Amino acid sequence: MSNPGTTSQRDIRKVAVLGAGTMGSRIAAHIANAGVPVVLLDIVPPGTAADASKPERNKIVLGALDGLKKSKPAAFYTPDSARLITLGNFDDDMALIADCDWIIEVVAENLAIKRGLLEKVQVHRKPGSIITSNTSGLPIADIVAGFPDDLRHHWFGTHFFNPPRYMRLLEIIPTAESSPEDIAAVSLFSEKRLGKAIVLSHDTPNFIANRIGTFSMGNAIRLMMAQNLTIEEVDALTGSPLGWPKTGTFRLGDLVGVDVLAHVASNFAKQAASIGDERQDVGLADFIGKMIENKWLGDKAKQGFYKKEGKDKDGRDLRLVLDWQTLDYKPSMRPKFPALEMAKNVERTEARIPQLLHADTTSDKAAAFYWPLLTELFTYAANRVADTGKEPAGSIVEIDQAMKTGFNWELGPFEMFDAAGVRATTDKMRAAGQPIAANVEKLLASSENPTWYKDDPTVPSGRVFFDPFTATYKPVPVAEGVSSLATVKKSHGIAKKNAGASLIDLGDGVAAIELHSKMNALGGDIVTFITQNLKPTSEAVQNFSSFVITGDSTNFSVGANLMQLLLSVQEEEWDEVEMAVKQFQNMTQAIKFCPRPVVVAPYGMCLGGGVEISLHAAARQPHAELYMGLVETGVGLIPGGGGCKEMTIKSIEAGSSIRPDARGEGVEIFEALKKNFETIAMAKVSTSAAEARTLGFLKPSDNITMNRERLLTDAKTRASAIAAAGYTAPVAQTTIPAPGENALATLKLAVWTMREGQFISDHDAKIANWVAHTLCGGKVTPGTPVTEQYLLDLEREAFLSLCGEKKTQERIAFTLKTGKPLRN
After folding, report:
1. Bond before 73 cis per omega within 30 degrees
2. Which of 92, 336, 364, 427 has the lowest tally of Cβ within 10 angstroms?
3. Using CA atoms, how far apart are residues 588 and 559, in angstroms rounded to an integer?
4. Is there a single domain that holds both residue 600 and residue 725?
5. Between 283 and 351, where is the model more confident?
6. What residues does the 3-hydroxyacyl-CoA dehydrogenase C-terminal domain cover (predicted)?
7. What is the spatial order of strands in the sheet that 496-497 belongs to?
8. Does residue 499 form part of some domain?
């Protein structure tokens, strides 16, 4: 990541977004997600009455806000974030920007419109306020040419990617006059508060990510036409096998909009000659122009490169695919390439790339496509790096970071080049008469075994990169507070590990337990590792003052290892199943009662057992993008590792300070219990960390990290602070007042009503009743004191009973096969 500055004297407390289209409104929503007040303005609809009090004058922004609330994927972390957005229009409400520290212009890609709006902004903005443009097609400096010094000095480009909540890249494009302090202030705010990866770009057409991405996409289309491939074949080749999004080329085009794709491509084509781009043959294909004439614009038009038409016999969407040669739609067929079938067995992308790239192009259809696709990408990317403003990037790092965070590539072009083998690849390119970029020649001249990157544990990022302008390696820049376990391991190594988990010394008395099984599924190896290392007598507890449980992977944990469970159930090894559940419970208890504070830092998917690990920690430090849920009912089970126990305790704590009603029953306790029952029985999954808090998985005191790359540092800081404050582990509760039979009867009545209304199946009802039984502490008198172990025993009883059900076994098998729940 580029690091224009880690500190700034400027605070950004309020932001204005000018333009409430798809991009502007979503930028505003994400700023509100960060808890920052934001003003959102747009034009008054043409022909609207002049009376400023008329609500129809804000029709555009009101419609935008309504769209944000309904958008999928969700623009807001929770609906409550919308309260931070103040709406208005350019004619009546421009004065609202007067107290804004940062003003973002996001109006039409038209120089006259942008300059006209800036004239209004200049009247109302406070001196020194930062103003930036989200343009992707106009030179940043040209937009403010001739404006006063104060505006030009505080002006630069901030190019967000859509949707801003989910796409991490923010390209910052300074002009020659831009204030370095302003660049630092926006960089720091966007990186910490908005979770952005900051990349500096020179002021050249399409900047970095769209320049490289448009070339790559256009080249894939060109090769498709030259090699007579189908749209589906190209999507299969340009998706997951390369570590690119599984949407591939054309499915991605449908998602972003064929017209948007065409706009970026035509902008590239128009300016390619003027900027001396060597690949002017990569432009807009004729068939895409015809698609736009037909208004086949992708998902928003319900047809584009693909089209949904009806359902198959199993109720799944039938998908048609466009024949680009005839413009007819044909039934979708799954392409088959032997090379891709072999590549499925190679887990790491770095290992798949050389296998795919260096296959025999004369006999392998996939290799014949991959060789020009990747080698031409390598050359094109290398030519985009210059130490002047003539090319978009000042280093290879900017390009790799831009493609990874703007297009969701697992590896950037130069990292892919390293994986392919720079020397081996360029030797073959030279033999084939392909051009070698000047920057590549400099790398080749530097070493017998040249690589763009090298590991170096002495620098904060753990890596150095080759700088072609000095022919030396320089540290990959990293902002203070950004870290990863991979980086820590380069300098500190691994203290202890098994197949599923590792213990890593983070320094300052803090250790991390890293999960690293496939999808971080929780099997016996992870359970044993955590239990042994967190017990009071362990060497780890003696050596460290606090612990963090987290990882570098995409998802924290998908829950218990269902395959192991199903095999044991099918073999009717009931003692083994019960022992596995007991061991899982022992693990979560070890987390809760560890004499050292354990902070769990979940991210991505945190399901089932992953939630139970989090619930038992001293504190949680989640990443904002957290999809958290006790989803066991979806596979016919209930939480068996202490999840129900903890939700019962939470229910009682939530209502313990509330006065009972006239009958002496805690009404508010029941309301909390009912909510938690619904959360478990309906397998609710949060769409953000903020929503996970409303579901009861996080406490108000649990802090949320916006930037994924800061999660490890934030969790370590939290663990250290808890330890330094004089942490005392909790004592197992022995007098928990069980909600009892009254609450149980009420919950069972609700389940019966749902079954009578045919909203759930008989098996759903059976599972839900077990959830109710466990949460209520069984059929006991309300208020009966019970122990934590008693509640764990109830969980285990319910879990084992459901394991013996044929329908549960069918659900588990179906989910393992399809990744989806079965309602039987």
Report:
1. yes
2. 336
3. 13
4. yes
5. 351
6. 207-307, 395-430
7. 496-497, 501-507, 510-515, 546-550, 598-600, 619-620
8. yes
**Backbone phi, psi, residue 113, to 5°:** -65, -45
**Which tokens go with 495?**
């203290």
Q: What pLDDT score was predicted for residue 283?
A: 72
Over the stretch 719-754, which tens digit does the pLDDT of each residue have?
999 999 999 999 999 999 999 999 999 999 999 999
Using alpha carbons, list the distances in angstroms from residue 322 to 319, 331, 336, 402, 822.
Answer: 10, 9, 18, 30, 32
Q: Find the mean pLDDT for residues 785-813.
A: 97
What phi and psi values does residue 478 have, to the nearest 5 degrees?
-145, 135
Cα 412 from chain centroid (whole Å):
17
**Residue 568 reports pLDDT greater than 50:** yes
Residues 136 and 243 in one domain: no
Q: CA nearest 380: which of 524, 256, 214, 199?
A: 214
Question: Please, what's the largest Cα pairwise distance for the chain?
Answer: 90
In the chain, the number of structural domains is 3
pLDDT of residue 656: 59
Mean of the pLDDT values across residues 37-57?
89
For residues 495 and 558, membership in a common domain is answered with: yes
Structural domain ending residue among the three candidates 427, 443, 474: 474
CATH of the domain at 516: 3.90.226.10
And the tokens for 602?
């979940």
814 inside domain:
no
Please check whether residue 503 is in contact with residue 489, taking contact to mean a CB–CB distance below 8 angstroms: no
182 and 38 in one domain? yes
Q: Which tokens in the block code for residue 221? A: 């289309």
Strands 501-507 and 510-515, sheet pairing? antiparallel
Tokens of 822: 């079965």
Is 468 found in the same domain as 550?
no
Q: Mean pLDDT across the stretch 467-472?
A: 97
Sign of CA dihedral 41, 42, 43, 48: negative
Q: What is the mean pLDDT of residues 693-719?
A: 97
Give yes or no: residues 254 and 161 share one domain. no
**Distance, CA of 183 to CA of 392 (rounded, Å):** 17
* Distance in Å from the first CA to the final CA of the chain: 49
DSSP per-residue string spanning 111-128: HHHHHHHHHHHHHHSPTT
In one letter, which amino acid is 61?
A: V
Spatial CB neighbours of 723, under 8 Å, sequence gap ≥ 6:
509, 510, 545, 546, 596, 597
DSSP at 705: B
Instruction: Say whether 35 sits in a helix, a strand or coil.
Output: coil
Q: Cα(812)–Cα(819) distance, rounded to whole angstroms?
A: 10
In this structure, the answer to whether residues 255 and 402 fall within a common structural domain is: yes
Same-domain pairing of 445 and 502: no
Q: Give percent of the chain above pLDDT 90.
A: 85
Whole-prediction pTM: 0.93
- What's the alpha-carbon Rg for the chain, to the nearest Å? 29
In whole angstroms, give the CA distance from residue 237 to residue 560: 33
> How far is residue 4's CA from residue 394's CA, in Å, rounded to a whole number?
13
What residue numbers bound the domain in which 607 lies? 487-808
3-state class of 752 per DSSP?
helix
* Residues 6+ away with beta carbon under 8 Å from 359: 339, 366, 367, 370
* Residue reference for tokens 């704590």: 653
- Residue 100 tokens read as 């804004």
Q: Region 492-510: what's the mean pLDDT?
A: 96
Residues 6+ apart with CB under 8 A from 763: 636, 805, 807, 808, 824
Each residue's pLDDT tens digit, 625-645: 999 999 999 999 999 999 999
* CATH number of the structural domain spanning residue 394: 1.10.1040.50
Residue 110's domain is classified under what CATH number?
3.40.50.720
- Other beta carbons within 10 Å of 545: 17
Examine residue 48 and state whether it is found in any structural domain, yes or no: yes
- Domain boundary residue among 176, 200, 224? 200
Six token digits for residue 143: 């937009």
Q: Which residue bears the tokens 């059900």?
A: 805
Look at residue 820 and tell me if it is in a domain: no
Give, as one character, the DSSP assignment of residue 437.
-
